[in-house]
């Protein structure tokens, strides 16, 4: 059973540090800096109450859209629905905001696992941003309309 909660922004730094150390793409410092801004939200997934986090998702709420900045599942807990649970939670939170019309994200062209996840979650590939990343790789932009509940 996967439980998803919003990171309380303080009091769980050891858990945040342990989780960020599994994930080189977005450091502890960058995550903490983002969370100083109230528009950023970190969702964390637990498999049981006592275990460390098994996944996380950072998103940002703009005026008319929400943007997924990263989604990560601990390699030992992949293919068990962790990312699906995290994404659904974010989607529910964005659906409750009347101004939010769309969810968007960008992903490396070579990240086939993440792209497969996004297609499963009914996001649509809308365009390519050529040489978007510092190493020259293209970004694929995915979007999904936010449906009101
Ligand atoms: C991409 C990632 C988040 C998927 O996490 P996950 O918890 O294993 O995904 P889920 O178990 O929730 O998968 C949900 C669906 O996505 C699809 N999917 C997930 N991983 C997949 C893979 N490696 N290949 C193909 N499809 C995949 C499947 O359709 C799956 O549905 P199913 O369970 O009905 O088969 C995980 O592989 C990861 O953390 N990768 C490294 C970080 C990353 O690249 N993040 C994205 C860019 S920020």
What does this structure look like?
This protein is 26% helix and 33% strand. The chain is α+β, with helices and mostly antiparallel strands. It has a single domain, classed as 3-Layer(aba) Sandwich (Aminopeptidase), CATH 3.40.630.30. It has a 7-stranded mixed beta sheet, sandwiched between helices. The radius of gyration is 15 Å and the shape is globular. 25% of the residues are buried. The mean pLDDT is 92. The site of coenzyme A has 19 residues, from strand 4, helix 3 and helix 4.
Under CATH, the homologous superfamily reads: Gcn5-related N-acetyltransferase (GNAT)
Distance between the termini: 24 Å
Order of helices and strands: EHHEEEHEHEE
Radius of gyration: 15 Å
Portion in beta strands? 25-35%
Estimated helix fraction: 25-40%
Return the domain count.
1
- Strand element count: 7
Give the class-level CATH name: Alpha Beta
Structural class: alpha+beta
Characterize the largest beta sheet: strand count, sense, and whether it forms a barrel: 7 strands, mixed
Any idea what the CATH architecture is? 3-Layer(aba) Sandwich
Large-scale geometry: globular
Number of helices: 4
What is the gist of this entry?
The chain is α+β, with helices and mostly antiparallel strands. It has helices at residues 13-20, 28-34, 82-95, 112-120; strands at 3-6, 40-46, 53-61, 65-73, 102-108, 124-129, 139-145.
Describe the secondary structure blueprint for this structure.
Blueprint: E1 3-6, H1 13-20, H2 28-34, E2 40-46, E3 53-61, E4 65-73, H3 82-95, E5 102-108, H4 112-120, E6 124-129, E7 139-145
Parallel strand pairs: 4-5
Antiparallel strand pairs: 1-2, 2-3, 3-4, 5-7, 6-7
Bound molecules: coenzyme A (COA).
């Amino acid at each position: 059973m996967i439980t998803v909660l919003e990171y309380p922004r303080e009091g769980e730094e050891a858990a945040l540090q342990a989780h960020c150390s599994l994930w080189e793409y977005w450091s502890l410092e960058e995550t903490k800096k983002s969370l100083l801004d109230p528009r950023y939200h970190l969702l964390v997934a637990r498999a049981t109450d006592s275990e460390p986090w098994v996944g996380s998702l950072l998103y940002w709420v703009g005026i008319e859209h929400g943007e997924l900045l990263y989604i990560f599942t601990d390699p030992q807990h992949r293919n068990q629905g962790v990312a699906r649970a995290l994404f659904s939670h974010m989607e529910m939170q964005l659906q409750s905001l009347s101004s939010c019309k769309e969810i968007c994200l960008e992903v490396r062209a070579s990240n086939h696992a993440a792209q497969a996840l996004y297609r499963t979650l009914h996001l649509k590939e809308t365009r390519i941003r050529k040489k978007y990343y510092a190493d020259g790789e293209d970004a694929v932009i995915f979007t999904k309309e936010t449906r009101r509940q």
